[in-house]
C-alpha cells in the first residue's frame, strides 16, 4: 500500500441546526455539497495517476460527501459502519441541549478512556478499539491498493492514532483535531516507517 487519503466529511445539517453529532444521521448542507465538489477537483490529479479503493462511513453525511467526490473521480464507494463517528447512544437524533442534559456525569476533569458519555453508547476505549479493528481489516484486505476514506472528525483522529500505533493509554494525552472537509495523507518512507505526510489540508477552500 502506498497512500491512505483521509477526508473528514463536509458540512452537515447537524453543524448548523443544533443537533448532536455521533450517530445522528444528517445530510450535507448546500455548503457541504459545494465543499465536496472542491475536494473532488483537488483530488482528481492525484487519483488519476494512481489506483485507489474508496471507502466511506455509512452515515449519510459521509456517504453524500463520498458520492460527490466519487462521481468526479469515477470511483465506487464501499460503505463500512466501522468508520462511523463515536456511538452517542441515546443522544443520537437528539438536540445538543437534550444531549447536555442527559449525558452521564464525569468523575474526573481529565480525559477518561472508559467514560461512556451516553447510555447505549461507546466509551472512548471502545471507539478506538472499533476503529483499529476496522482499519486492520481494511488494511489487510487492500494491502496492494491505495485507499481513499471519507469519515468523521473523531474517527479520523483515531485512524491517525492507529497508523502511529498508539496504545489506547496514549490517546489519553494526545488528540488530532481536524476540520470539515480536511484532507490528511498517510504513507510510508524508505525506512518503512508510518508517516503523516499531510494533516487537515483545507487549502482547496481558499479559492
UniProtKB/TrEMBL annotation:
Return the Pfam families for the record.
His_Phos_1
Q: Where is the active site?
A: 9, 85
Q: GO molecular function terms here?
A: phosphatase activity
Its domain of life reads Bacteria
Question: Where does this protein hold substrate?
Answer: 61, 96
| Any one cellular-component term (Gene Ontology) | cytoplasm
- Protein name according to UniProt: Histidine phosphatase family protein
The source organism is: Heyndrickxia oleronia
